[in-house]
Amino acid sequence: MSQVERDVTVVVPFRDVQNFFPEFLDSVAVQTAFARAQVILVDNGSTDRSVAIAEEFAARHPNVDVVSQPEGRAGDARNMGMDMAVTPYIVFWDADDTVPERSLEVLRNTIVKTRATVVVGREKHVPRPVKAPWHKYFGKSVKTVGSVVDIPDLIHSASCWNKMFDLDLLRSQGIRFGTGTAFEDAYVSIPALLLSERIALVDAPVYEYRRRGDGTSVMDTIWDLPQNYADQLLMLEYLAGMRQGLTPYQQETLERFLIRSMQGFLVRAPQIFGEADCRQLFERCRALYWGITSEQIARSTNDTRHRIPYLALHFADFDLFYRPASVLGPVHGREGDLYVDYPGTSWGLPLTKVSSVPAQIEGMTGGQDGTVVLHGRFSVNGIPDQLLAGLELQVWFERSGRTLPAVNHGQAQDGPAQRGAVFTVTVDPGQFPAGSFPVRLVVCTRGRDVSRPCSVSPALNHQAPVGGSRGSARITADGGTAQLVVESAPH
């Protein structure tokens, strides 16, 4: 096939991937559309056999070129490959992953048929699958929309390897990868999605992303390395510079990405940085998120724990950001929901609403005089564990007419992996009718008391009943909810 007939460029940056490169290149060579592809392998500083592997592959295939960009990172290498491309369409793949054999054909046929400028395919993560918010948009046939605002969660698909781009879109809009930085994909994928006037989704597996798990991938250490925080913030500030040229709906979609992409970094920053460095990050983030509504932040974050940092940014409360336990008060109840007690205005209500109160019955022992003691653990999402000891607790046994006081023992001390606080409640089976009663933890507040169902530790599934002469009790699970099963003593 002549150069003129080739219409897709495959750009592959690589560096020290000799253990994965042959498998990846094999998956490229068996592509059903391989003959119509221009493949550009870009070395960016390999010190192992990766260059030799690439050159051996190129020697067998006339449509493969090997070039070098030794001073840069993956973004620099991808930009170099993009500058060399002479085809109308382009994909960017990584040398330590693999590609299903029809990927290039499926993406190419879809972009030609739909006249889209971005095509997004389904990706597979190995060894563990990952469920992403944009996966819900895929169907059994190709889905085409005029703008990413029609499927706004697609904005979170920031990686480039599951996409095919119209090269003219990238060049005409000046879209290029970030250089000398991590998270370089987002510099291309996010602007392309925002500026594209036709996007196609194809429900076919077009990429297999390998999570190495050996500490050498960015995702293996994403929360641990201070440089990742700097690179992530730099990327978001770059994207925020697009706001002025976007429509209001596009701006709102971009804000979803700006918020969601930083939430994990913000909640962990106080454990990574000293106070001075954390304050610098805090001030830059204040400027980045200023003017975004609390409703938008609540929609774009996982839970209360991830929303508290944005509350701190809005109110310029660095202590709330860096040492929240020194600022927050006890929770309060309102209309069946719990709220983090923070002395702000009504602006912050969507961010202070507690998203979950995980509570679990973990054990059951015999008490005095034939009683039974239930041992449990609980937490309140958004509340530091050290503040949990100040909460008054009860346990409500539905349908029994019994609500009993619980002893809150405070923060768990049984190992760093154990979170939350522990509680106990003493039950006299003789005071209950025979039957099964759902167990709910009640948090008593200065507003209204709020209850949440308790789950059951798997260790309790096969525990024998506990009790004495006045009856016995055991804990079972019904649909994930703890049930106190009381059996009356025979008379």
TrEMBL record:
Keyword terms, alphabetized: Glycosyltransferase, Transferase
Listed InterPro entries: Glyco_trans_2-like, Nucleotide-diphossugar_trans
Domain of life of the native organism: Bacteria
CDD domains reported in the protein's UniProt record: Glyco_tranf_GTA_type
The keyword Transport is annotated on this UniProt entry: no
Chain ranges of the Glycosyltransferase 2-like domain: 9-137
Molecular function terms, GO-annotated: glycosyltransferase activity
UniProt name for this protein: Glycosyltransferase
Coiled-coil spans in chain: none
Entry EC number(s): 2.4.-.-
